[in-house]
Amino acid sequence: MMKYPKRAETFRQLRTRYLGFLTSVLWKLAGDRELFTEAMQYALLGMWQNVEKLTGKKAGAYIYRIALTANSKAWRNRIGRDGQIDKSQVGTKEDPIASVSRNELVELVRRTIAELPARQSKAIVLRYLEQRDYKGISAELGCTEAGARSNVSKAVATLKKKLANLTEWK
Amino acid sequence: MNEKNIEELLKEIGSKDVPADVQKIAEETARDFSETLSNQPKHYVLWEYIMNSKMTKLAAAAVIVIAVMVAINFLDKSVTPAYAIEQTIEAMRAIHSVHAYCSDWDNSEGELWLQVNPETGQEEYYRSDQGNLLIVGTPQATYYYYKDKNLVRIRNGYVPTSDVRVSRFFEDLVGWIQQYHGKLSFYSQFDEGLQKEVIVVHGSIPTQGQMEEKEFVFRVDTQTKLPIDMEAIKCGPGEGIKSINRIEYNVTMPEGVFEFGIPNGAKVVYDEKG
User: Fold this and answer.
1) Do B64 and A45 make contact, defined as CB atoms within 8 angstroms?
2) How many CA atoms does the CB half-sphere of A123 hold within 13 Å?
3) Do B26 and A8 touch (CB under 8 A)?
4) To pair with B116 at 20 to 30 A between CA atoms, which of A124, A147, B63, B153?
């Protein structure tokens, strides 16, 4: 295990290196300042806990995992264990079919991304939040370009299904 | 809503720039986090270990850092100057057998015998004779004998007694508490009966799906560094016994204690894996 001074210094360097990435991804995934702050704290905590891994060869993969896990945790805190969004926090309408707004749709999509399996949420982040091409996505996911397309496609399909369940849209 | 609509929404989310104030929040959060780390004394007294803090305030980060420090540097931290957790971890790793006297929620009294595999820390044989139920666990099969029904249920293979390994109890407890978003706290207390200081470990886990809320206390002897007893304050039906009143370590197992014979006239059933 890394000694504390070394660990702290490594963390400082990693923070400098990844803060921009984390800020961008977490802001897009969170969409509001309170949620973002909470996710950022979880991400920093994740970085601190995984300093050794973030200095290894798979650092790139770990930082994605840390960011996505942090986002999921922050969303879980907001949504609660029963899967219901606290209406005082989000302002979701009683009847989503009748009155859901564009902003609320975006909110629902963000919430649903946080519930996706890790590989699918990473595919979504790479494709739509970072706007990577499939070659870049395949490199990050460690698969072929066809595999990357498949992952993105599956992720969108899962999102559609989850959103349908959430809003009862057909 | 179709996939095209979803892609449009995703693209909209992806095109959001980070506002200047959010950038500032990120930088401040990172700076505060680093300062909190650097301000932690090397050997602080840890009284409370909070795993499920909702980090809506920056100040809460300090608590989380403490939690992380415990998770990572568990061996370095002390509860009191006279006691350090690593002593219990080390003492427990030397356990190869346990004999305990227990009480259950129905006020029944019982006995527990465990034989621990020193390599894995997991018990490999056990005998729990508690009230109406006798359980004998062996690597080949686990036997459940319901005395009032004269019924024996046999399950192929070994069914562990708990989520944590006996001789790695303290090590596994941290992960278990973390997994279920619980809290763990340590404090020192003078025990009138024993006429000496003991370390009290208090843990709680909120309701998790079908698992009900749990709260427990166990006490650690400051001389042997081993747990003396345990009491479950809150526990769901069938999710554990009420208390372990006395524990003996590294005792010689009575011959045949882990053997199970079908009682005369007992009905025998095999469960789905049997």
Assistant:
1) yes
2) 27
3) no
4) B153
Q: How far apart are alpha carbons B153 and A38 in whole angstroms?
A: 49
Would you call A85 exposed, middle or buried from its count of C-beta atoms within 10 A (0-12, 13-18, 19+)? Answer: middle
How many residues are present in chain B? 274
**Chain A residues 1-20 within an 8 A CB cutoff of chain B:** 1, 4, 8, 11-12, 15, 19
pTM for the structure as a whole:
0.48
For the stretch B6-31, pLDDT in tens is 888 898 888 888 888 889 889 888 88
Residue B171 vs residues A13, A147, B84, B121, B191: alpha-carbon distances, Å: 30, 40, 13, 11, 25
> Which of A148-152, A162-166, B38-42, B181-185: highest mean pLDDT?
A148-152
**pLDDT tens, position by position, A16-38:** 999 999 999 999 999 888 889 88
Pick the residue of B7, B11, B33 with the most A CBs within 10 A to test the interface with A by mutation. Answer: B33
ipTM value: 0.83
**Alpha-carbon gap, residue A58 to B154, rounded angstroms:** 46
Contact criterion met (CB below 8 Å) for B65 and B216: no
Nearest-CA distance from A11 to chain B in Å? 8
- In this complex, is the C-beta atom of A128 within 8 Å of any C-beta atom belonging to chain B? yes
